[in-house]
Amino acid sequence: MKISSIFHGLTLFMAMIILNTAFVALVESNSVGAQAAADAVADANQDVNKSLWFGTGCLLPGLIFVPLPNWYSYLLTPVGLTGTYFYQPSPPLSRLVGKSPEYVAVYTQTYKSKRGNIQARWASAGCVTGSVILVWSVQGHLFLLLPQ
């Protein structure tokens, strides 16, 4: 009877250790992913040249004056702005040397997503600013053409 209760106690103890090890590995895996995501967001914020993307956005509304047949020149601005959403450069490989495969996967995915989002946001802000300037300047010239 004593051997049976000792056996059951040890079996229960072994089962708890095995299950606990899986949870510790899961928690450790989540902390690696969280650290990779935090590093990727910080690096993406640092790497984006915000003034370049704002300037690019400011120039996009001017593309309507490109002499193309029919109404094709009006498509250049939306196509250019859409391109800023889809252009997501990869992170520099030097930042990923010596990291675990899970860290590399999470870091790369988060970096591309965040960097593309920042670039698109700044290009959109520039496009709105450029459109306002374009409308304001065209409106000013129209008033000059009216008879006084």
Element layout with pairings:
Layout: H1 2-47, H2 50-59, H3 73-86, H4 101-145
Helix pairs in contact: 1-4, 2-4, 3-4
Keywords:
148 residues, mainly alpha
Question: How would you sum up this structure, described in words?
Answer:
The mean pLDDT is 81. This protein has one domain. It contains four helices and no strands. The protein has 148 residues and is an all-alpha fold. The termini are far apart.
Query: Which ranges are low-confidence, i.e. pLDDT below 50, for 5 or more consecutive residues?
Result: none
The proportion of strand residues reads: under 5%
Number of E strands? 0
SSE arrangement, N to C:
HHHH
Overall residue-averaged pLDDT value: 81
Largest sheet: none
Q: Any idea how many domains?
A: 1
Q: How large, in whole angstroms, is the Cα Rg?
A: 28 Å
Question: What is the overall shape?
Answer: rod-shaped
Number of helices: 4
Structural class comes to mainly alpha
N- and C-termini, Cα separation:
113 Å
Kindly state the percentage of residues in helix.
over 70%
Question: How would you summarize what this structure contains?
Answer:
The protein has one domain. The protein is built from four helices and no strands.
